[in-house]
User: What shape does this take?
Amino acid sequence: MGSLDDGVSASGSSLSNNVEKFLCDRLLDPSQPISERFRALFSLRNLKGPDPRNALIQATRDSSNLLAHEAAFALGQMQDTEAIPSLEAVLNDLSLHPIVRHEAAEALGAIGLESNIPLLKNSLVLDPAPEVRETCELALQRIEELKSSSSDDKSSMKETSPFLSVDPAAAAPSHSSVDKLREVLLDEERGMYERYSALFALRNHGGEEAVSAIIDSLESKSVLLKHEVAYVLGQLQNKAASAALSNTEECG
Assistant: This one.
């Protein structure tokens, strides 16, 4: 005769499976409001296993470029190595919108395996979209930085973000001054990885001057950087950041 604990465990597992199936179905149902599909996507991002992964992989081919790009991003944040072949296929599919291919490249960098280097180098040369090529370059630099770090450093590089995100570049050292970080972020002659590092360091700093510097970088010439800046301002969730994003939408 089974114990009460066995019954509770089985019941909990069944409930978990039902919730997981509901979320997968909701994500992939084009008749659902996009807001509901995004809620399902964000929930699945926090789960492990083949069903959430496969649902997100399917979503990278969705007719909504916004949803497809977010699904690729989620796979990178999960750092699920089983998703690599599908992310490679997305990256190489030139029929997909550049924003989706960009996010697949970033996800491969977030997963961080050395075996992803040839995939990214291939698209760095062949992809016609500059934002995708820039992302491949960023991802390659991130992997090289992981590769050159000690095992302990690798772990810390993945976990230092106070926002619990896997960032496409390691934040610049925390002792860097806001003025110096601002200078680097706004310098159009600097390499993109260095500017990203300054961006994430300013985000982690989080003071008014840091937020002001991030907002000013919305005037950057780089579409890729502006895309990342908008994401970071969303992470910060303060009034100045929200106002800047609203103004950008009105001008867009």
Observations:
- Residues 178-248 form a domain with the Leucine-rich Repeat Variant fold (CATH 1.25.10).
- The first helix runs from residue 4 to 28.
- Residues 99 and 178 are 30 Å apart (CA to CA).
